[in-house]
Amino acid sequence: MAATDEMLGIALRHKPHAACIVPEKREELTTEGGLDVAGHYDRMARLVDALAGAGIRVSLFIEPDARQIEAAVRLKVPVVELHTGLYAELSGEARTVELRRLTDAAALAAKNGIEVHAGHGLTYDNVAPIAAIRQVRELNIGHFLVGEALFVGLGEAVRLMREAMDAAR
Question: What pTM did the predictor assign?
Answer without folding.
Answer: 0.92
